[in-house]
Amino acid sequence: MWVEAVSHWLEKLSIEPTALTKLIVALGLIVLIAIVTHFVLHQLIRGAIERLANTRSTERLWKRALFEKHLFKRFLFIVQALIIQVQAQHWLESGSTVLLLISSLTQLWILLFTVLLLFALLDVLLELFQFSQTTRDLPLRGIFQGIKLTAVILAAVIAVSVLIGKSPVILFSGLGAMTAVLLLIFKDPLMGLVAGIQLSANKMLSVGDWLEMSRYGADGAVVDINLTTVKVQNWDKTITTIPTYALISDSFKNWRGMQESGGRRIMRSVSIDVSSVGFLTEEDCVRLRKSKVLSHYIEQKLADITYYNEHQGADLSLPLNGRRLTNIGTFRAYLENYLKTHPHIHQKMTLLVRQLEVTPDGVPIQIYAFTNTTVWAEYEAIQADIFDHLLAIVPVFGLRLHQAPTGHDIRQIKLAGMESVIK
């Protein structure tokens, strides 16, 4: 019908309707209509919708979905290809080589932009899901990348079938023999996909967690979890890339529990010189009683000790008999009461001041407590303030910190020796 109309139109123009002239006219009409269609779709329709989206600032996500990810643009290219294919079927003779060529090209065009449209749709969904608390921790990036990889493979098979003019079913059946090769080629993406699902299902890791994995030199925040890798921004601002499946096969430390608990642990000790450990004298007790932190403890302890010694009839003239207050025990009690009244120590978590096994470096007194903040800088400041105070008050209890001799100590010994020789 359309071929006859073209022939009749050429006769009116006194042009002989040969096969070549009919083909040229038909191609000219196809190109002309394609140009007009492109102008209408991309300049008028898409432009009008973009202007409408810009005037509605509250619909930010809708605007981003349609335009910033090129979702609507790619859809219009598919519509444009369909219009060209319909034109070719109407303007060209059925079964002609040109029609077959144009049909093949438009099919490949539609296939290409369908894949790109799928990619844009997945990107939009991934961005939208980041605003939902229930889907934020899911390994959607890895899953979507797996879908994209599958779509590319399917599109490649269909494209080959279009070019050779065979059914894609034949090609898919031939791929069965290549399964082992494909599994070997795509081993890392498949393992990463499975690992991502396991990490999400078991709530082992999500974006934003503090991950520590010394084997890979990772110590920082997780910024991305994709099909094959996990990106960690270390605290020195470097980026460490870890294979996703390594998080399943190897061990790692996730600090999320600490961050969610609201407290961060302090576990640090100081070493007391053993030779400075001894009993408190009455003068020491009177002096230390002036401390609000220690007054109640000393009064209660002295009452218990006095009652025990009187009940046992202990001869206190010998230090081996009876009970007495020690400076190191009182020091431990002071630190414990000090931490219980500290405004930045979490009082609902474990709080201990304990004496560890004696070593050649002295008697370790360890503080085991939790701050009421998990912010790194604040945690370090609180910990430093506590130990600044601890180091400063050690001499008040008649104790000395253990410290290996320094160059200054050796020089002092040498000077003392020289002075004694001169004298």
Secondary structure elements and pairings:
Blueprint lengths: L1 H11 L6 H37 L4 H9 L2 H21 L5 H33 L3 H4 L3 H25 L3 H8 L3 H7 L1 H15 L8 E4 L4 E8 L3 E6 L4 E5 L2 H4 L3 E2 L1 H6 L2 E9 L9 H7 L6 H18 L14 H14 L11 E4 L7 E9 L4 H18 L13 H16 L1
Antiparallel strand pairs: 1-2, 1-5, 2-3, 3-4, 6-8, 7-8
Helix pairs in contact: 1-2, 2-4, 4-5, 5-7
Protein name: Mechanosensing system component YbdG
Subcellular location: Cell inner membrane
Keywords: Cell inner membrane, Cell membrane, Membrane, Stress response, Transmembrane, Transmembrane helix
Summary tags:
423 residues, alpha+beta, SH3 type barrels, Alpha-Beta Plaits, 3 domains, 5-stranded antiparallel sheet, 3-stranded antiparallel sheet, 11% strand, rod-shaped, cell membrane, stress response, MscS_channel_2nd, transmembrane helix
Task: Give a brief outline of the structure.
By secondary structure, the protein is an alpha+beta fold. It has helices spanning 2-12, 19-55, 60-68, 71-91, 97-129, 133-136, 140-164, 168-175, 179-185, 187-201, 246-249, 256-261, 282-288, 295-312, 327-340, 376-393, 407-422, and strands at residues 210-213, 218-225, 229-234, 239-243, 253-254, 264-272, 352-355, 363-371.
